[in-house]
Amino acid sequence: MTVPTTTLPSGEAVPVLGQGTWFMGEDDRERGAEADALRLGLDLGLTLIDTAEMYGDGGAEEVVGEAIAGRRDGVFLVNKVLPQNASRRGTVAACERSLRRMGTDRIDLYLLHWRGGHPLAETVAAFEELQAAGKIRRWGVSNLDPRDMEELVRVPGGEACATDQVLYNLTRRGIEFDLQPWCRRRGIPIMAYSPIEQGRMLNHPELRRVAGRHGATPAQVGLAWLLRQEGVIAIPKASSPGHVRENRAALDLRLTEQDLADLDRAFPPPRRAQPLEML
Ligand SMILES: NC(=O)c1ccc[n+]([C@@H]2O[C@H](COP(=O)([O-])OP(=O)(O)OC[C@H]3O[C@@H](n4cnc5c(N)ncnc54)[C@H](OP(=O)(O)O)[C@@H]3O)[C@@H](O)[C@H]2O)c1
Questions:
Q1: Strand 164-167 versus strand 107-112 pairing type
Q2: What is the pLDDT of residue 81?
Q3: Burial class of 184 by CB neighbour count within 10 A (0 to 12, 13 to 18, 19+)
Q4: Which residue from 21, 36, 224, 245 could staple onto 51, CB 3.0 to 4.6 Å apart?
């Protein structure tokens, strides 16, 4: 069940396909099924789980805690601090609350969810403190554009940033113009969130046509299109077992030159810099 990996700047290998958790933990009646879906994903090798203190106001972290209970060592856990909490003290306190909700003693990769009012230098200092205490193993950011990233790598310790998690899918290709090449030059993988545009892109006729040629689904084509690229980690969220299996199988789909050309015509790459899009 080995899933291909990509490398963080530290040299650590992480799976290129993981599992998202936004909207999990919001409805108590769904929690059992959501944890089951995450466990199925873990069984299938999707061992990177992405969550955040924001999701379900901590509820998603509790679902994650349920899913990883008894198997923590086999999981690469990504979590995010809200910008309003991302002060020197606030980051540490937020991390400790998140650890409690997930029932674990460490986060593998802790991200600033998006840029807010607290100076980046303060957040990075808090990340370093958490690292020294063994509460997080690495840190990164989310929703930072190239200008923010330039600023980040100039603050003390900023060069250690392990990823930028951003909105990236066939319908949101803006980062290909600047952010993605910037990250590539520095060996920083991009973590592509909403990789199937929360389902909104799945009825696109070209996507359906390409999928039909392979006996695959449009979601699988969208994921395979991301996963063919070096240095891209996709984190689709699936709370139904069928979707989990389907997403795992996207790793076996190889798109042809013809597929890629057809997809480029339907979803053109950017010709100029665009503001970073967020959901
Ligand atoms: N850093 C950030 O600011 C940020 C922002 C957005 C998202 N994220 C992270 O990225 C993760 C993924 O993004 P997302 O949840 O926004 O959107 P997404 O993964 O693009 O789409 C999730 C939706 O697609 C459905 N789905 C999953 N697999 C499918 C398949 N094979 N066929 C058809 N439908 C399928 C899911 O349904 P079911 O659940 O019913 O299976 C769910 O409704 C999030 O969960 C979160 O962890 C981060």
A1: unpaired
A2: 98
A3: middle
A4: 21
Looking from the CA of residue 21, the nearest atom of ligand 1 is 45
* Spatial separation of the C-alpha atoms in residues 156 and 199, rounded to whole Å: 40
Question: Atom 29 in ligand 1: which residue has the minimum CA distance?
Answer: 243
At residue 263, the pLDDT reads: 98
Distances, alpha carbon 186 to alpha carbons 163, 180, 190, 196, in Å? 10, 10, 11, 26
How far apart, in whole angstroms, are the C-alpha atoms of residue 42 and residue 15?
11
β partners of residue 50: 78
Cα 23 to Cα 28, 111, 175, 216: the distances in Å are 12, 18, 25, 26
Protein residue whose Cα sits closest to atom 47 of ligand 1? 20
Residue 264 to residue 252: CA distance in whole angstroms: 21
pLDDT of residue 262: 98
- pLDDT the model gives residue 1: 64
- Using CA atoms, how far apart are residues 48 and 31, in angstroms rounded to an integer? 19
pTM of the model: 0.98
The predicted structure's pLDDT at residue 243: 98
The per-residue b/e assignment along 192-213, b for 16 or more CB within 10 angstroms, e otherwise, is: bbbbbbbeebbebebbeebbee
- Residue 199: CB within 6 Å of ligand 1? yes
Where the chain has pLDDT below 50, the residues are: none
Going by C-beta distance under 8 Å and a sequence separation of 6 or more, which residues neighbour residue 44?
1, 244, 245, 248
Which residue type sits at 66?
E
